[in-house]
Automatic annotation (TrEMBL):
Entry keyword Zinc: no
Principal subcellular localisation of the protein: membrane
One GO CC term on file: membrane
Protein localization: Membrane
Protein name: Leptin receptor gene-related protein
Species of provenance: Bombyx mori
Keywords: Membrane, Transmembrane, Transmembrane helix
Topology in the lipid bilayer: Multi-pass membrane protein
């Protein structure tokens, strides 16, 4: 029963994060959908690490060159998703309020992604296959 509550909590947190991003785009005073491009970074962020985990041999551990490269690319996606709304706000394309809502959504969504992979990476969990 505890495992189901963790999954429900992660789903709720992800929904709250996406609500912030959608509010940054859809509120009447903002009306621009440029901040929604961070969703592309949400999708791309875990892909390099998942590929590296699949291709890393058991003897290499977590310090293999493949895993280090994947973490570097993942951090590039993460930094880009925080930099995009700031650059758009500094350029005057979006308002600062939309930038703050997008940044708040980024924090919540990335903590949700981290929690998801932490729960599913545990070997003694009911979720592990």
């Amino acid at each position: 029963m505890l495992a189901n509550s963790n999954l429900v909590s992660l789903a709720f947190a992800g929904s709250i994060g996406m609500t912030f991003v959608i509010l940054a785009c859809a509120l009447p005073q903002y009306k621009l959908w440029w901040p929604f491009f961070v969703v592309l970074f949400y999708i791309l962020c875990p892909i390099p690490t998942m590929i590296a985990r699949r291709h890393t041999d058991g003897a290499g551990g977590s310090n293999s060159a493949c895993m280090e490269t994947a973490v570097f690319i993942t951090m590039g996606f993460l930094v880009s998703s925080f930099a995009l709304p700031i650059v758009l706000a500094r350029a005057g394309v979006i308002f600062w309020g939309a930038c703050y809502l997008t940044l708040a959504g980024n924090v919540i969504v990335y903590l949700t992604i981290l929690g998801f992979f932490t729960i599913f990476d545990m070997d003694d969990s009911d979720y592990a296959m």
